[in-house]
Specification:
128 residues; three-stranded parallel beta sheet; globular
């Protein structure tokens, strides 16, 4: 076994009624991007709960994350984040959305020429 240190600054709210607790975790100065998939969150009521909870915040949306997220879709989100100076990403949805947001967060801060190397060559992520 190799020695290592692991730091994972992630807070997860899980379960019934937890969406209402989002504002307590955020600073009013955050520019938030809510990222989601094809719209099932609108059908099941989650979208309305999140938008109500964040009604006092500046929120931008990015939708259309596919199952097995596409690189091109994620890079569109990266461009929007950079253009609008978003500083907080909120994944709302299932595993594909969460996976996409992890890559998007890394790609936004990537300092090389092409964030594709994060995926294709397992380039270490130093900041997200």
């Amino acid at each position: 076994m190799q020695n290592f240190e692991y730091h994972n600054p992630v807070r997860i709210l899980f379960g019934k009624g937890q969406i209402a607790g989002l504002p307590k975790l955020l600073d009013q100065s955050h520019k938030i991007m809510m990222i989601y998939g094809g719209g099932s969150i609108k059908k099941n009521g989650v979208y309305e709960q999140v938008t109500n909870a964040l009604s006092r915040f500046e929120v931008t949306e990015f939708s259309g994350i596919e199952p097995n997220p596409q690189f091109q879709t994620c890079m569109k989100a990266v461009d929007q984040i950079k253009n609008e100076k978003i500083d907080f990403l909120l994944a709302v949805g299932g595993g594909s959305v969460v996976d996409a947001v992890k890559f998007i967060a890394a790609a936004v801060r990537f300092t090389g020429n092409d964030p594709w190397v994060i995926l294709s060559k397992w380039k270490p992520v130093r900041d997200a």
